Amino acid sequence: MVSYLCEVLQVSRSGYYNYFAQTSVERRTMKHQADERVKDEILKAYQFKRRHKGARQIKMTLQNQYKITYNLKRIRRIMKKFGIICPIRKANPYRRMAKATKEHRTCTNELQRNFKQGVAGKVLLTDITYLTY
Predict the structure, then answer these.
(1) How far apart, in whole angstroms, are the C-alpha atoms of residue 11 and residue 5?
(2) How far apart are CA 69 and CA 58, in angstroms?
(3) DSSP letters along 59-96, please?
């Protein structure tokens, strides 16, 4: 039965038995306990100055404030494992509104720096940023 299940799941039998071996179980529990200790330090840096941070800022806070050095991948792994999520900044609604109304678009360059047309008053240029409305 074990051979059939290992074949279906594409796992070797030795890998299956190794996973349930006593040494492997102890190793996993020791790693989980170490992650719990690191999680407490990460949460302390995460809530430093009452502002939630991402993995890079947590790494810098741990290094500068607490003199603890952890690998960035380790911090990210523990954040993912324990559900520590950095808040994502929301998009600026005014910028989205300006893009939708095309408020700050530029016109095409039809003059191509040919300012002297030979006729007076044919070409008139201005900068509309100085017009009061």
Answers:
(1) 8
(2) 10
(3) HHHHHHHS-----HHHHHHHHHHHT--PPPPPPPHHHH
Spatial separation of the C-alpha atoms in residues 113 and 96, rounded to whole Å: 33
Q: Which residue ranges make up each domain of the chain? A: 1-133
Q: Report yes or no: 98 and 104 within 8 Å, Cβ to Cβ.
A: yes
In the three-class reduction of DSSP (H, G, I as helix; E, B as strand; rest coil), residue 29 is classed as helix
Task: Give the residue carrying structure tokens 């993995």.
Answer: 55
Region for 69 from its dihedrals, namely left if φ exceeds 0, alpha if ψ lies in -120 to 50, beta otherwise: beta
Q: SS3 breakdown of the chain: % helix, strand, coil, rounded to 5?
A: 60, 0, 40
- Tell me the Ramachandran region of residue 22: left when phi exceeds 0, alpha when psi lies from -120 to 50, beta otherwise: alpha
| Structural tokens at position 69 | 């050095």
3-class DSSP assignment, residue 104: coil
Q: Per-10-residue mean pLDDT for the chain, 133 residues long?
A: 94 95 97 97 95 95 97 97 92 86 75 84 75 61
Token readout for 15 is 């890998």
Residue with tokens 């996973």: 19
